[in-house]
Each structure stands twice: as structure tokens, then as C-alpha cells.
Design brief:
Elements: H1 12-24, H2 28-32, H3 37-42, H4 45-59, E1 62-73, E2 76-85, E3 89-96, E4 102-109, E5 127-134, E6 141-148, E7 154-160, H5 177-187, E8 191-195, H6 198-201, H7 203-207, H8 215-231, E9 236-246, H9 248-259, E10 265-269, H10 276-289, H11 295-314, E11 325-326, E12 329-330, H12 331-338, H13 342-347, E13 353-358, H14 366-376, E14 382-387, H15 414-426
Parallel strand pairs: 7-8, 7-9, 9-10, 10-13, 13-14
Antiparallel strand pairs: 1-2, 2-3, 3-4, 5-6, 6-8, 11-12
Helix pairs in contact: 8-9, 10-11
Length: about 425
């Protein structure tokens, strides 16, 4: 997760593709209507038409869109729509603000998507995969269960996503950390369930009631449904079901554990202990610090983010009915998080906890890891592990971690997979 922001209002990738469709149809009035006020002033409809026509004069007539992907940059949602022209292939870079207005439009050389290769520690003949459904009704989610091929009944693990509309592999750039974990752990005798996140699978449907969305609907309800699905699955040990949450999912883990005390154990990967709005500001400050030449350009956006943070801090229960979005999330989302103290909730749990942190993580930092240690203290029921070379995806690297690092193909470190497997396999059927 390049930025630990709140839930997405629908699938921003589709918004980017629809905007490019307007350009392709030469509906410049429709495209112009989606601009924010600043872009409308800088790129009026006539100039937008001239820009598109000049682009086709250079690259040839527009033919079709090939692919689209979304990422976070400096707090904005950015969609890169790969477009095929007669003489070139370019990425149309559409930048969206929190109100889903177009805050920037660029045409850049296409960056080939790297292929996510299987992790070297996974033996694909040691497990099989089956497709299943998590939950039911309007929020049913497609999932994949990786199950060891020999022996059993197996302990099983549910993987809970970070922020944003994540797929079941938690794909980010060239990396698929949840697939790495599933294949690595299944190789070691642990069944693993991963599934599409609700904000990805049902993003458009969620928009109708976005102002009511909290962490419960975004993440927790589906995680509990996934646990129930595993308990009812033949070949698995119903008394040894575990939950692992990454990033925002890690923050949610204590609530999941409290809601289901029969869980055998809980695992937190890069879970935050500080207010989410403060972490967002810290992330943006960090990204600005990586390139001093862009500090002036980023200053207005940083000021806007800090202004929204100030509004979040001032929210009261009287604001709960508001339909406004702050930092991309509804008011009730922020009120719900404020009422939830993850470390304090974790202190009340009887299940064992494994808390892991990458020291090179700039999104959820060692300060959060130290927050867990301070709150939970020394206990034989709680295990802490810090990995000096790992980033937010638990992939090894050197120097300062940056968003560009996520575009380089890598894998969750084998030591992390081995540590998780050893911890799970050491828990007996009573979860102790």
C-alpha cells in the first residue's frame, strides 16, 4: 500500500478508464466537466482539444486502451491507462483528488508492467488451490484457498488486506505479497485463504452508501466470514484457524480477535498504533523529503492534507450524519477509528499474538511497532519480530524505501514465511 489512506469510493481505475474513453470519443466537454477548478483554469476545453489532437498528430490516431492500473502518489489517486496509438503506446496519467475530480492530466511513456514470479521457497507440487466464495448475498467475495496436498487436517490462515481496493494477492506493482505468503505457508503445511477485498469487488455498489462505511464493513465483517468458511471446510482443523492482517488489516486484527475469541491466534504485519490521519501526514512529509526539488510543487497538496487532518481531529458525534469525505474517507469512518484503541483491545485478548515489522517501512514505521511493545509488554503469549532490511511489503532492500521500490519485482522474505509457519505450527489445538 503506497499510502495508508481510507477506503476508496468505488474503483478509481474504472474512473480513469472512463475519462480516457471521453477523450477517445472526443467528448471534450464531458472530460472538461470532470476537472477540478485549478485544472479547468489551466486547461480549458479548447486547449484540451488541441492537446489531444497534437498528441495524435505525433503518435498517430488513437486505437484502443490496453490496460489500466491505480496507485497512490502524494495523497492522490493516480490511474495510468495504457493507450495504443497508431505509432506509439503511451500511458495517460489521470490524477484524482479526494472528490474524484481530475486534478492532473499527463501523457507519459508506458512503463512495462513487471511480471510477478513465484517465490523461490514455494513448491507448487506441495499444495493445490481451489476457488471458493467468502460470505454470501450482495457482498459475496471470490477467494482462493491454498491447501497442502498430503496429510491433514491442516491449520488454516485468513489473510486480511491493507487499505484501498486490494485484490486477493494484495498486488502492488510487480509484487504479490499475499500470494507469496499463501504459497510459502501452504508449502510448509498451512492452508491459506485469500480473497478480493470488498472495496475492490463491490466498489461501485459501496458508493451508494459510502457515508455509512466504517472499518467494520470495509474489512472486519468479511474477515469473520472467511474464518467461518474455513471452519466449515473439510480437511482443515477447525480449532486451529488463524488470522493475519497487513497494514490496515493489522490495525483491524484486535477487533477481529475480540469478535471471534475461538480463533487460535492472531498475526499483525505492519499494523499501526497511531491515529491514521497522523500517519498519512507523516507519509506525505517523508515522500516530499525524498526529492527537495518537488517540495514547492507538493506544498499546496500537503497544506490541503493537513487542513483535512485538522477537520478530522475536530469531528464529534454530532457530525456522524455528514456525507462529506475527509482524506478520501467518510466522517463515520474517522469517528469509528477514533473510538477504537487497537493496542488496548489487544491487551484484552486471550489468543496468542505474533507482531512483525519491517524496519525500512516508511508507511507504518518502527514507532508503531514500539507502540505495540509498549502497550502489550512482555508476555509469553506475545511474540515480536523486527526485520532490519524489510519494507512495508516485507520485501528486502537497501537504503531508504520509496514508492518506486514497489515497481521492482521481489518476494516476501523467506525468513518471514518461515517465522510465521513455525509460530502457527507451534500452537496446539487449544491455540496455546
Amino acid at each position: 500500500m503506497p499510502l495508508a489512506a481510507g477506503p476508496e469510493s468505488g474503483d478509481v481505475t474504472e474512473s480513469g478508464k472512463r475519462f480516457v474513453d471521453l477523450l477517445a470519443k472526443e467528448d471534450f466537454a464531458g472530460a472538461f466537466a470532470q476537472f477540478d477548478p485549478r485544472v479547468k483554469q489551466a486547461l480549458p476545453e479548447t486547449k484540451l482539444r488541441e492537446t489531444w489532437q497534437a498528441l495524435q498528430a505525433q503518435s498517430g490516431p488513437f486505437k484502443k486502451t490496453l490496460a489500466a492500473r491505480a496507485e497512490k502518489q502524494m495523497g492522490y489517486d493516480v490511474v495510468l491507462v495504457t493507450c495504443e496509438f497508431a505509432r506509439a503506446t503511451l500511458d495517460t496519467k489521470v490524477v484524482f483528488d479526494a472528490k474524484r475530480q481530475v486534478a492532473g492530466l499527463f501523457f507519459v511513456p508506458t512503463r512495462p508492467a513487471a511480471t510477478a514470479t513465484p517465490p523461490p521457497y514455494a513448491r507448487t507440487n506441495a499444495f493445490r488451490e481451489q476457488q471458493l466464495t467468502v460470505g454470501s448475498g450482495q457482498w459475496a467475495l471470490p477467494g482462493t484457498l491454498s491447501v497442502p496436498t498430503a496429510g491433514g487436517p491442516w491449520p488454516a490462515l485468513v489473510l486480511v488486506h491493507g487499505s484501498g481496493p486490494q485484490d486477493r494477492d494484495e498486488t502492488l506493482g510487480a509484487n504479490k505479497p499475499f500470494r507469496d505468503l499463501a504459497w510459502g505457508l501452504a508449502t510448509r503445511g498451512i492452508a491459506v485463504l485469500r480473497y478480493e477485498k470488498r472495496t475492490k469487488e463491490h466498489g461501485l455498489k459501496l458508493m451508494a452508501a459510502l457515508h455509512k462505511l466504517t472499518l467494520q464493513e470495509e474489512t472486519i465483517d468479511d474477515a469473520l466470514s472467511a474464518v467461518a468458511r474455513l471452519r466449515a471446510t473439510a480437511g482443515l482443523d477447525a480449532k486451529r484457524i488463524f488470522v493475519l492482517g497487513h497494514s490496515l488489516g493489522g490495525l483491524a486484527v484486535p477487533r477481529i480477535g475480540k469478535a471471534d475469541p475461538e480463533l487460535a491466534g492472531l498475526i499483525i504485519l505492519a499494523g499501526s498504533t497511531r491515529p491514521l490521519e497522523d500517519i498519512i501526514v507523516e507519509q506525505v512529509d517523508y515522500l516530499v523529503s525524498l526529492d527537495a526539488s518537488k517540495a514547492a510543487e507538493a506544498s499546496p497538496k500537503l497544506a490541503e492534507i493537513k487542513a483535512d487532518v485538522a477537520k478530522v481531529k475536530k469531528l464529534t458525534a454530532a457530525d456522524a450524519s455528514s456525507t462529506n469525505l475527509l482524506l478520501g474517507a467518510p466522517v463515520v469512518y474517522w469517528l469509528d477509528l477514533r473510538a477504537y484503541d487497537a493496542p488496548a483491545t489487544a491487551r484484552t485478548l486471550k489468543q496468542p499474538l505474533l507482531i512483525l515489522q519491517g524496519q525500512r517501512d516508511y508507511q507504518v514505521t518502527q514507532a508503531d511497532f514500539d507502540g505495540w511493545k509498549k502497550a502489550l509488554g512482555a508476555s509469553p503469549n506475545i511474540t515480536f519480530k523486527l526485520y532490519p532490511t524489510l519494507n512495508h511489503l516485507f520485501i528486502a532492500g537497501e537504503g531508504k524505501s520509496t514508492p518506486d521500490e514497489y515497481e521492482q519485482s521481489g518476494h516476501v522474505a523467506e525468513t518471514v514465511v518461515a517465522d510465521i509457519a513455525a509460530w502457527i505450527l507451534a500452537r496446539n489445538s487449544a491455540g496455546r
